[in-house]
Amino acid sequence: MTNSILANQWWAEVYRKHFGKLWLFQAGILLLVGFLLAFSFGTNAPKVADNEPVGTRVPNGSSMWTCSMHPQIRSGDSGDCPICGMDLIPVAQSAGGMRTLTLSPESRALMSISSIPVERKYVSQEIQMVGKVDFDETKFGYISAWVPGRLDRLYVDYAGVTVKEGDHMVYIYSPELYAAQEELIQALKYQNIPQGSIRLPSVNLVATAREKLRLFGLTKEQIEEIEGQEKPSDHLTIHSPASGVVIEKLKNEGDYVKTGERIYTIADLNQVWLHLDAYESDLPWIRYGQDVTITTEAYPGEEFHGRIAFIQPVLDDKTRTVKVRVNIPNPTGKLKPQMFVHAKVQPTIAAGGRVIDPSLVGKWISPMHPEIVKDEPGLCDICHMPLVRAETLGYIAPSTAHETAPLVIPSSAALVTGRRAIVYVELPVMPAGIEAATQGLGTAIQRGDLEQIRRAFAVLEQVLDQPYEQGASIYDQELWNRYADRLTPYALAGNRANTPQEASNAFAEIEAITEQMHEEFGPVGQPTFEGREIVLGPRAGNYYLVEHGLSEGELVVTQGNFKIDAEIQIQAKPSMMTPEGGGGGGHHHGGGDQKKATTNEHAGHNMKLPAAFTNQILELIASFDRVQQSYAPGDINEVRLAFADFDRTLQRVDGNMLTGHARMQWKEFSMLLGNDAFEGQQLIQMSDAEQLLVTLKSHVRRMRSQLGVMTNMKPMIERVSVPMQFQDGLGEIWDRYLEIQYDLAKDDFAGAKEKLPELQSAVEAIDSNVLTDDAKGIWDKERANLAKLIADLQRSEDINGFRAGFKSLSEEVGVLAKTFGFGTARTVYELHCPMAFQNRGAVWYQGNDQVRNPYFGTQMLKCADSVKPLMTDQPENSGANQSHPDHSQH
């Protein structure tokens, strides 16, 4: 008892002294327990990257992982980054395609994203220039010595004096002038003598003397004054030929001058020239005859106007500018030569970068004097040259047609990478009700109740009849209308279906179309942005002209686009900084040597493309080869034509045949190749064409790699559905073919040739009336091929010629097997001999995998490097696609 009391007292004393410490210890224990519980519950929760935008959709069970610091790392499993050791995070998946990003409304607000519609409108470009006022060289007047002599008096003593036409300028003494006057006076005296008293020459001496004085620079009045005198004067007064300002005084009183020497230079300042410096980037907007607004430091607030009269054809390589000359009326004389001025031109830009000037619409303008503008054709008042239409000088008339206005975007929307740029387009929201209607339809299809299915189709019809939401852009409305038009026939067919299977078939088409809609519409309540590479035109003020890649009404991001691009890059998708995707940014953490990642986003993707799509891609590659060949002659016109053919071939490729990842890949390459084709058709110089070819080659190479289109791949054959009755008829052709193949394998030329009539009868016995129109068209083509091949074989004179014809027949039989089939009861194997026809190789077909080579016969009966089943009613054996063991018996 005593011990217990002592123990309690001791504990109370300890508790009193260490109360604070014990409380902290208990709090630490509670926190530790809390962390352990949180960790135990949190280990099963999915990890979310700290830098992932709010609202980005990450699918459950994501099969691809990446590093937030090294987005080029792609792995099929979670784990650590091989570069920095950080935990890998799931690759975010968003609606649309390779360049899309889906956000929540809160995330959009935090990123301060704003967008405006792409629009067509005329935009003005203000071109600022500086320059100096100069004399109008066409307004110079010169006072020169028309006769040699001495300058006894100069009436204008210094430069800068203003003179008028006819003012006294020079008083000159000239012996030659004195002699010429004497000649005139004497000629007049002889003119008054009667003709009978003296014999005079027939020449009119008076007229000759007058003309001589006129050529010496004397006026008519001066000549008449001399005629009234009895003796000549030894001095002559020279008058000013024009009004203006004396800008040069070249002689002094007492100087002797020779004929032609200048004494004064006079400039008319009622019109002056202005020499401006225009930068290279401004040249697309500068035109002859444009109005120019001029301001000066001397007269602030006052504007002067002139018109562009000349654009220097040569660029100054030091200043990278071009001289532009402007004619300016200067009746008040305020503009002084050598005065510095500021000038601006404000052209209005139309589609294609063409310039509009409303003041010149329908006008006629002088090609030498732009100030001469008239309403009708005629001659220039100054140079008397014929006037020309303003449109011939690079102008176009404003039109009421909406399409003549250029497609423009704000300059802030474009992330410029050269002539091309990346823009981010905000996808329109999925139309109201379409998702619920298709989901309800899918549920009804699964239940199999025909009445419920019809009601679900009726609901879908009602949704399709509704217009797009009020206030939407024309682009959004037209996009919805196109999809509604595509969906409506299947909705009607489903509503009229007589069986659940018919309804299911209609629903399958609806599902395929709505899947395409998800590429062009964003989910409700989740703003979705898609990156787009476009071809830019020139910049006009605060706008860029768009030449290719956008449509009117689409919403482009004007604020926050760099943030979107950064997030796209982190997700290792194609962006401005990483055009091919895969990231590549980030930093090196963790020390040690940086390892190069060996994984990529598409590792392990083995795409199975539809045969028709593969054939279209092969046609596109063939067109690409023709583009390369067009470069050889060095003719830019041939290159443009080849790119036009490439563009047409690209338009024929139907990406709607694809689904999933392959469809996203093709959408990306279709955009890139479309830009290449567009630029190729606009080429002007071969130097630009060479650069474009490098880009095109890169895009085609990536496309072939990602889509799995090999270099030597042959066109694939698309299977056509036909009735069993038709396949049985083809089976007869197959049986006759096998008999011929068997005879050739044992070198029996006569036996093989004897079976050709039976083969021809089997072809003629085919009943094509059971086929659809499309299938019948395909069969008619193949039947004609068979008839020609049989005829060629019948003309063979020896077994070697027959075997050459049999090679073509085998290829045709392969087409029949792959296109139509010979029925489920027949087995078809494709075999290949690499040594046939001088190592060019050839295929043939058999009903089993026991090699019997028809091209070498008994000489190398077992020669085959490939044996694979095309059609079989038995399971394929595991080695069917490998080299055949009998090949070793060569």
Characteristic key phrases:
single chain; 890 residues; alpha+beta; nine-stranded antiparallel β-sheet; six-stranded antiparallel beta barrel; elongated
Overview of this structure, please?
- The protein has 890 residues and is α+β, with helices and mostly antiparallel strands.
- α7 (434-447) runs antiparallel to α10 (500-520), α13 (636-652) runs antiparallel to α14 and α14 packs antiparallel against α15 (686-707).
- The longest helix is centred in the first third of the chain and has 24 residues, at 19-42.
- 30% of the residues are buried.
Instruction: Give the radius of gyration.
Output: 46 Å
Low-confidence stretches: 38-62, 584-605, 872-890
Q: Tell me the β content.
A: 15-25%
Oligomer type: single chain
Share of residues in helices: 25-40%
Span between N and C termini? 109 Å
By secondary-structure content and strand pairing, the structural class works out as alpha+beta
Number of strands: 36
Form type: elongated
Counting H and I runs of at least 4 residues, what is the number of helices? 21
Biggest sheet character: 9 strands, antiparallel
Q: Residue-averaged pLDDT, rounded?
A: 82
Detail the topology: elements first, then pairings.
Elements lengths: L1 H16 L1 H24 L22 E2 L7 E2 L13 E2 L9 E3 L2 H6 L3 E4 L1 E2 L2 E2 L2 E9 L4 E5 L4 E6 L7 E2 L4 E6 L1 H17 L13 H11 L4 H8 L7 E5 L4 E6 L6 E2 L4 E6 L3 E9 L11 E6 L7 E8 L9 E9 L10 E6 L2 E2 L5 E2 L7 E2 L7 E2 L13 E2 L5 E2 L10 E4 L4 E2 L3 E7 L7 H14 L2 H16 L8 H22 L4 H21 L7 E13 L2 E6 L6 E5 L1 H10 L40 H20 L5 H17 L7 H22 L4 H22 L16 H22 L3 H6 L1 H9 L8 H22 L4 H21 L8 E6 L2 H4 L2 E5 L19 E6 L19
Parallel strand pairs: 23-27
Antiparallel strand pairs: 1-2, 1-3, 4-31, 5-33, 6-28, 7-22, 8-17, 8-21, 9-16, 10-12, 10-15, 11-14, 12-13, 14-16, 17-20, 18-19, 18-21, 19-20, 22-23, 24-25, 24-26, 28-32, 29-30, 30-31, 30-33, 31-32, 34-35, 34-36
Helix pairs in contact: 4-5, 7-8, 7-10, 8-9, 9-10, 12-13, 13-14, 14-15, 16-18, 16-20, 18-19, 19-20
